What does this fold into?
Amino acid sequence: EKMQGAGAREEKILVLVRLRPLSEKEVASNEVADWECINDTSILYRNTLREGSTFPTAYTFDRVFRGDCSTRQVYEEGAQQIALSVVNGINSSIFAYGQTSSGKTYTMDGITEFTVAEIFDYIHRHEERAFVVKFSAIEIYNEAVRDLLSSDNIPLRLLDDPERGTIIEKIREEVLRDWSHLKELLSICEAQRQIGETALNEKSSRSHQIIRLAIESSAREFLGKGNSTTLAASVNFVDLAGSERAAQALSAGTRLKEGSHINRSLLTLGTVIRKLSKGRHGHINYRDSKLTRILQPCLGGNARTAIICTLSPARSHVEQTRNTLLFACCAK
Ligand code: ADP
Ligand code: MG
It folds into this structure.
């Protein structure tokens, strides 16, 4: 089905779907769960009230996770392989996509922590190589890029470097010491996200967060001898803006329009993902948004990509859930 370039090894995008359980609040207000994972790869819509309606009721993906699956399971059976390829010099991106309150942050936070723990494990087991792990974090809100490790509120500029491609000017990078250092940095980021925000929910539903780990390693026996084989790659954990605003435009394949209510980065990401999943080698419009420009080296080509689509099972969310599943279908 997929076109292969001469000699090019091309990975398809790993598409995972995670259904969250009904929350206590939803249960208390008599909300009904209409979606059910019937095995490891299929999710089914079961609303007998809507039997005979025109939309498909079963959807199949690489892997689906039921409401009682832990984030560790999602990590081990889904994201792990892709995230850990960074130690072998392979770039990767892991996205959480879904409507606000579907579980993106819950999922991504856990995956980031498990990955970091395992990377440090790996580093300790491979003492023949010297590793450096650098942490950085940004937020993209209304196409403005902000450093989540820095307290000044100045938007960061993107520059084109002839060798490295798009770089983020003056971004702060911290050399990561260990897992508890990660926890410390994550709480700084969390605090930065909240500063000056009167309507935090509104903002977190519209902004994208990227946590990046850049890892370099070289064989110790060659260190300082100038002919060392250095491996460098990064893994990106991307907690996307709520899909509710872009969902209709995305599933309808509408062309990108200017407008405050449409999230340019989310729409462009959708277009890029659709093209990559079809194996197209023509022009891919990475430069149309900040998010895709920044992630370009870690999307497509030799990079590896996983998208975790998070879903609410609630009847009242059925339209958004379907939109998320349609996006997930486009990506696989
Ligand atoms: P989002 O980031 O998509 O807006 P959150 O990750 O903040 O959503 O999740 C919304 C709420 O649901 C949070 O209180 C979170 O703890 C809870 N939640 C999300 N996913 C799960 C899950 N798989 N199991 C249990 N609780 C979850
Ligand atoms: Mg969130």
Q: What stands out?
A: The chain has a mean pLDDT of 87. The pocket of adenosine-5'-diphosphate (ligand 1) is lined by residues 20-21, 23, 98, 100-106, 310 (CB under 6 Å). The chain has one domain: 69-314.
